[in-house]
Specification:
It is a single chain. This protein is α/β, with parallel strands linked by helices and 402 residues long. It is built from 17 helices and 18 strands. The protein has helices at 10-18, 40-50, 68-71, 77-86, 104-107, 121-130, 150-157, 196-205, 220-229, 237-247, 249-258, 270-277, 281-308, 340-351, 355-364, 368-374, 385-401; strands at 4-6, 23-25, 32-36, 59-61, 72-73, 91-97, 112-116, 134-135, 163-165, 177-180, 187-190, 208-213, 233-236, 263-264, 267-268, 313-317, 332-337, 377-380. The strands form 3 sheets. Strands 1, 2, 3, 4, 5, 6, 7, 8, 9, 10 and 11 form an 11-stranded mixed beta sheet that branches. Strands 13-16-12-17-18 form a 5-stranded parallel beta sheet, sandwiched between helices. The chain has a two-stranded antiparallel sheet with strand order 14-15. A hairpin with a 6-residue loop joins strand 2 and strand 3. The termini are far apart.
């Protein structure tokens, strides 16, 4: 067999692939060894030429994310979001396969298939011309280095494959990252050219995040319970801050330096700190400057963890959600308000403090007009709990429709 080099006539490569031939194809990572991914005999030749054990499944190359549901079942919205962000690019996504269409040999007898959209114009055009997915592992004998040029592919397989598309040297030289999204939690099966942290961030960006804010004592807890009933991850930013006080020793050192005497034996005296910051606006601003960025980083990490287990809805609860910058993570931003005396009574009962201390907290916080200005919606929580519950549920239904 003569192995031809194709530099321009991609229709010839597409025809070879449709007829069951094998063609080396360039990608943004390394060269792949492509065959018709729906042709069992073509796929068998890939295994034979590479010396690859048939117990190892193959990925399918597709030209765009619109092909996902052609070959896969139950494609989660998160998979489509990742494809929209990173395809074409070095990310392979494993999903439940349509076993009536994807040959068993491609799946190595399993129920899943990995999809990949290569970021190389010549291979993308060949996929469009051929109108079939390509089974395409890296174009090297098993155990050998992956090739970055057409010449390297020829050295490996000259006379064993039909053609190589010469698309120049591959830019990355490292295989794609493989992410299994066929079930939750999602798992990275192979570290590759796309960093795992980028994937986590992208999944978290796709979450629907509802921000719940309002001054202390307004009764935000009811709203958060309702969101939890819908499967939301609820993050109380005040609790996140308290968790950090248990684990983040650098945070404690910063607090001790800024507010001497408030940290004793490695433990923050919250009452002592409260007496300082709730009576001094400058001190409160200094405290927020220390804590907000750390809380924001921890919140983002927890959102990423939740997205990796297939979560789709989250809620953030914080008095300082606006000034902390976390409001930018919210697709809907809701302010819960209540009358001043109602808040004072609630704070006294909740925290076991006297009226004077409760009044200090209330006086240190923003007024209703501030929340009304910055929030998408404002709900008042002055009356019976069932009345507020109905108002909040109605708001959620309307926002979903919007």
């Amino acid at each position: 067999m003569e192995t031809i080099i194709i530099k321009e006539d991609l229709s010839a490569a597409a025809e070879l692939l449709r007829r069951g031939g094998l063609v080396g194809v360039p990608t943004e990572t390394v060269y792949g060894l492509a065959g018709n991914g729906l042709d069992e005999e073509a796929v068998r030749k890939i295994y034979e030429v590479k010396g690859r054990p048939e117990v190892k499944p193959l990925a399918l190359m597709v030209p765009d994310a619109g092909q996902m549901e052609n070959y896969c079942l139950d494609v989660p919205p998160a998979a489509k979001a990742l494809a929209a962000k990173f395809w074409p690019g070095p990310l392979s996504i494993v999903l439940r396969a349509r076993t009536d269409l994807v040959p068993e040999i491609v799946r190595a007898g399993g129920e899943t298939v990995s999809l990949r959209c290569p970021d190389h114009p010549m291979t993308l055009e060949t996929l469009r011309l051929a109108q079939i997915p390509f089974a395409a592992p890296s174009a090297n004998p098993s155990g050998q280095p992956s090739p970055r040029t057409a010449e390297e592919v020829c050295r490996y397989f000259r006379g064993q494959i039909d053609a190589v598309i010469d698309g120049g040297a591959c830019g990355i030289g490292r295989e794609s990252t493989i992410l299994d999204m066929s079930h939750t939690p999602y798992r990275i099966l192979r570290d590759g050219a796309l960093d795992a942290e980028e994937i986590r961030r992208a999944l978290a960006e796709n979450l629907r995040v509802i921000g719940i804010t309002g001054p202390s004592g307004c009764g935000k807890t009811t709203a958060l319970y309702l969101l939890e009933e819908q499967g939301a991850l609820v993050l109380d930013c005040d609790k996140v801050y308290h968790d950090l006080l248990e684990t983040d020793h650098e945070l404690l050192r910063e607090l001790d330096a800024a507010f001497p005497g408030t940290v004793r034996d490695g433990v923050l005296d919250r009452s002592a700190l409260g007496k300082i910051v709730f009576s001094d606006p400058a001190a409160l601003t200094a405290l927020n400057g220390i804590t907000h960025s750390r809380v924001a980083r921890e919140v983002e990490k927890r959102l990423e963890d939740f997205a990796m287990v297939g979560g789709t809805l989250a809620a953030l609860d914080a008095v300082e959600l606006i000034s902390s910058g976390l409001s930018e993570r919210c697709s809907l931003f809701v302010g819960i308000l209540a009358e001043r005396e109602t808040r004072i009574r609630r704070i006294m009962a909740r925290d076991g403090i006297d009226r004077e201390q409760a009044l200090l907290r209330v006086s240190a916080q923003k007024d209703d007009a501030y929340f009304a200005e910055h929030c998408d919606l404002v709900l008042y929580n002055d009356g019976p709990m069932d009345e507020f519950t109905e108002k909040f549920k109605y708001m959620l239904r309307e926002s979903n429709h919007g």
